[in-house]
Every structure is written in C-alpha cells, then in structure tokens.
Design a protein that fits this description.
The protein is of the alpha/beta class and 300 residues long. It has helices at residues 24-41, 55-80, 88-97, 118-127, 137-144, 179-190, 227-244, 254-261; strands at residues 104-107, 113-115, 151-160, 163-170, 202-207, 209-221, 268-273, 284-297. It contains 8 helices and 8 strands. The strands form 3 sheets. Strands 3-4-5 form a 3-stranded mixed β-sheet, with helices on one face. β1 and β2 (113-115) form a beta hairpin. InterPro entries: Baseplate_assembly_J_pred.
Length: 300
C-alpha cells in the first residue's frame, strides 16, 4: 500500500483549456478581414476599414462584442465543469457522477438543513474514486470524512504494515472531535456490511492534535485612511485566512499572515505574533485563539 497524495494536489493552479479564443481584438480583426474579403470577392474595393465612422466597421465592432460575450460564455462553461473551479449546483452534479452527495452537517435556528460548504464537499469528491478499491488509502479518508457530520477533515498520518493511522478533525471549537464522532467512524468502517475496509487492514482513528497560536499585527498607515476601517478589514481577512487553514497538516506562514494583513492603503504590516511559521504535522491542526490588530499613522 502506497502513500496517498491527492490532498497535496492543487489542480486549480493549472491553466484551464479554452475551447475558443475570446480576445476581442482577435475577433474584431477576423471579422473585418472577412468583411474586406467579401467586398473584394464581389469586385468592390474597400479601403476605409480604419475610418472611425465607417458603417461596416461599426457593425463589425458591435458584432465582435456580442461574439466575445458568446465565446466567454462557452469558456465559462468549461470552468463550471472543472472540479477545482466550479461551485454550487454544478459541483453537486460533479459529485453525483462519483456517487458523492453534499452532506447535511446540521440545522439552522429555523430547523432548516445546513449543507457542507463547497470546499469541504470538493475535497470529498476528489477522494470518492478511491472507494472503488478497498486497498486504496484514500478509501479510508473518504469514509472517515463522510460518515459523521461533525468530522470535516480526515488524513492518513502513517501506514505500518496492515496498521493505518488516521487523524480526524472536528467541525467545532479547536477541532477536537467528540468521542461519539470518532466511534461512529470506527464502527462504520469496521462494519463488514459497508465494504469500507480491506479484510487485512487495521485502520485506527484518533482526534487531531491541536497547535494553538495567536495573531498580532501592527499596521503602519499614511495620513488619510481610517484606522478603524483598516483594522476591521485586516481582522476580517485574517480570521478568514485562519478559518481556511484550519485543516489537518495546513501550515500558517508569517508571509501568509502579512499578505492578508496588508490591506489597501497600508504602508506596512508588522507581524508581532506568531514569531515563526506554524507547521503542524499531518495529524495536527493549527487553531487561532486570538487576532489582535493595531495601527498607527506615520509620515511617509
């Protein structure tokens, strides 16, 4: 059994294919060339193609604009069916193609179901093909992250012969899953009726280890921008970043913190904490317990 690396692949960084060229200048040039060729084929000279108010040019420019919109719609359709770029109902259809449906992870104040977010659902869709073989390590990651709504992420942290160790990340608080959620995953995988485990494998499930950290940033602002607005925006962006990185094995680098803290108009963002990059192991999660942003106005 080999290590499974699908979690480390980021296909969204690959360029998407374009079915058609949607560059306006190219489309306009093609249409004007075709118009000129049509005139010449009928024995008519046409040397006013660069005249601003030439009626034929104006019509072709309007048509080129409409054609560009059509071509962009075609290329957007390509993106909609790329798993790393699609969203919402498009993602639901892709998931259904590998028999992976979006989970209900709770209910809101009115009793309406709360569905898992796109990114979480996307991770499970990528793992779903591994369930076609019980011998695939990704098979265990898929079931571990699908069985109980409290579990939002699962990763294999080590393989030693038949023993397969998996860490489970909880949805609430710092990410420590409840004993009931861990037991539910264990019972499901070991139930022969679910065909989720190879007979000789011994998967073991444990809760994620938690590395806590705090973010403290000091912004240097020129005269003009509102300190309160800059602090609020930086805090919001840093919290969103911390939430996105609340995954097993996801590091939180100081450069990432600085990039999110450096809001529009700020001259600099000085990171006071953490003192070094936060680097959890595959079985650990980085959990931010506090975000403090201060600011001062400086002469530049």
């Amino acid at each position: 059994m080999t290590d499974y690396i699908a979690n480390d692949l980021d296909r969204s960084r690959l360029s998407l294919p374009k079915l058609v060229d949607d560059d306006y200048d190219t489309i306009e040039a093609e249409r004007l060339a075709a118009l000129k060729a049509g005139y010449e084929a009928r024995g008519l000279g046409w040397d006013t193609g660069q005249t601003k108010w030439e009626p034929g040019v104006i019509l072709e420019q309007h048509d080129a604009d409409r054609e560009q919109r059509d071509r962009r719609s075609i290329n957007d359709a390509v993106k909609a069916w790329s798993i790393d770029d699609t969203w919402g109902e498009f993602l639901d259809v892709l998931g259904a193609g590998v028999f992976c449906i979006r989970r209900v992870i709770g209910t809101d104040a009115n009793g309406n179901p709360v569905m898992e977010e796109d990114e979480e659902y996307r991770r499970r869709i990528k793992l779903a093909p591994a369930t076609l073989s019980q011998a695939a390590p990704g098979n265990y990651e898929y079931f571990a992250s699908s069985v109980h709504p409290e579990i939002k992420h699962a990763r294999i942290v080590g393989i030693d012969g038949p023993r397969i160790n998996l860490a489970l990340l909880g949805r609430y608080g710092d990410g420590t899953p409840s004993a009931g959620a861990v037991a539910a995953v264990h019972n499901y995988v070991y139930d022969a009726a679910n065909h989720a485990k190879l007979g000789t494998d011994v998967p073991q499930f444990t809760g994620a280890g938690v590395l806590t950290y705090q973010i403290a940033v000091h912004l240097l602002l020129p005269r003009g921008p509102s300190k309160a607005a800059a602090i609020a925006e930086a805090t919001t962006r840093l919290q969103a970043m911390a939430d996105r990185r609340h995954l097993l094995g996801a590091s939180v680098g100081r450069d990432r913190i600085q990039a999110n803290a450096l809001v529009a108009g700020a001259e600099a963002a000085v990171i006071l904490s953490p003192a070094a990059d936060i680097k959890p192991t595959l079985g650990e999660v980085a959990y931010c317990t506090d975000i403090a942003v201060t600011a001062e106005v400086v002469d530049v």
